[in-house]
Amino acid sequence: MRYIRYAILAIIAVVLVSVALANRGFVTLTLLPEALETLFGWNVSIGMPLFLVMLGGVAIGLFIGFVWEWIREHKHRAEMARKAEEVKRLHRELRRAKVKSEEADEVLALVDKKAS
């Protein structure tokens, strides 16, 4: 199973490197369109290779997806924490009940011994 995972990771790495090599051309990213640039009077531009733009978009999308899922699953994590706390409480209660029953058994054994 470990080798299959390594093979899949190697294939993904080869694909990413080939995409990066095929898209090395520089592109200019601008923050605002030209119409808004004239309205505000400023704009931010940066030049970078196209593959960085593509891989950055994928990374940002993955991050947003992970955060979205983490927020969406909050109710399930909270429910699991509540149930775990209840299980701990019930285990403590069971231990106390066992100790009390053992003490009561010793007393009953002494009473039976004296009665006979």
Automatic annotation (TrEMBL):
Pfam families: LapA_dom (PF06305). Residues 47-94 form the Lipopolysaccharide assembly protein A domain. One of its GO terms (cellular component) is plasma membrane. Residues 77-107 form a coiled coil. InterPro entries: LapA_dom. Keywords: Cell membrane, Coiled coil, Membrane, Transmembrane, Transmembrane helix. The keyword Transmembrane helix applies. The chain crosses the membrane at residues 46-71. The keyword Calcium does not apply. It comes from the Bacteria. This is DUF1049 domain-containing protein. It comes from Rhodosalinus halophilus.
